[in-house]
Structure formats: C-alpha cells, structure tokens
Amino acid sequence: MLRDIDMNTDRVFGKVATSLDTYYSITTFAETHEELVRALVRLCILQEPSPRVLAPSNQFPALTLDVLERDTHTILEDSHEAPGKVLVRIPFFFLHLYNTTIDEVRNRLGSAFLHDWVEDHEWGFFFERMIAEYEALRTNLLTSDGREAASLGDIYQGAVGRAETLGRIVKLKRLSVVASAHRFPEWGVLTVREQEQEREQELDWRSGFVIKNADGA
Length: 217
Known about the structure:
Elements: H1 9-24, H2 26-32, H3 34-46, H4 65-71, E1 75-78, E2 86-89, H5 92-102, H6 107-111, H7 123-143, E3 149-151, H8 152-155, H9 163-166, E4 169-171, E5 176-180, E6 189-194, E7 200-204, E8 209-212
Parallel strand pairs: 5-8
Antiparallel strand pairs: 1-2, 3-4, 5-6, 6-7
C-alpha cells in the first residue's frame, strides 16, 4: 500500500546514508583522513582536473588519486577539457557523510543534504539562499589557496561560452552571504538582514557579499 511507504525524504535519506556508511565505513575513513577528505571535497566542488599521481594531502603522500580509486571509495572521471587528467566525483550520500565529519559546507547549503523539499512551503527562498552560499563557498575555496585572481573558465569548470569570455580574469576576495531587506536598489547602498536576523544594517553591495534579493523582487 502506498500509504505504508515512508514519504519523509529526510528520514529516507538518513536511512540510506546510514546503510551506506555501515557497508563502506565512510565516516571512519573521514575521521582518520580528515585533511585528505577535505582536499577531495575541494577538488570535487571546484571540478579541478588533476593528474592521477596527485596526492591531495601532504599528510598522506602515498595516497594518490590513483591509489584512492583502487583502494577506497574514491570515484574518478576522465576530464574532457584536460586530457590525461581526471575529475574527483563524490556521490551525494558520500558527500553528506564526509561533510558530517569535516563540516566544510554549512548554513543552508549544508542542510540541503537533508532538506524536505516536499514539505517546505518556502522552498524558493531556501533554494535562492543555497545557491548564494554555494557561490560564496566556491570562491572562498579558491582564495583559501592564496589565489587572488582566476579566469571565469577556472571558476566555472565545464561552462560553455566564447574563449575570450571564459578567459576573462576576475579578482577574487572572500565572500559572505546576506539577505536584502528590500528589493535590490539602483543606488550603491542597500539594507540587508544578515544571516536572516531581524537586525538590519546598511552596506556597500560591492564590498564582497553575495546578496540574496528580497522576496518578490
């Protein structure tokens, strides 16, 4: 009977993740190789083509991507844009279990792993905020390596467009996410509700923020 099927997506996702963890010891691996897992998540999110001989973490120099593919649950895919290199692909459930340990992805973006889209009547707001946090995360991962600039093609691996567009260099700075308290204005200063708190403040929208526009904008 359909009514006997568990329709709570949070619960279903959690049960599947727990079963996979039992079979593959994903959490145990993440706890004993935290810096390595952090590096793998970074490679996955940024979609950086890498040689198979790359050791993602200096703490584990013997664990190259080639070895990780052979001996662990790391999945590699040949890069079409960089022949001879590979992309790290982490299945969604594995990424959730990794993140439970390393806590790399936070706020709304982190809760997206277990978000019940069916029951959420404000899913539009949640989705917009999640995308904003994803953009900030990707940029901050690049700046954490000390990079001050990157091409659009490097930032958005796999993007389709003209070579001159993808090759355009943009400056990088650490980003944070705020929600606009009103529709995005035409002038340079706007009022935001940071972290969705009631306290509002004015800021220059050019000052390193990813802004989630107000509802109805």
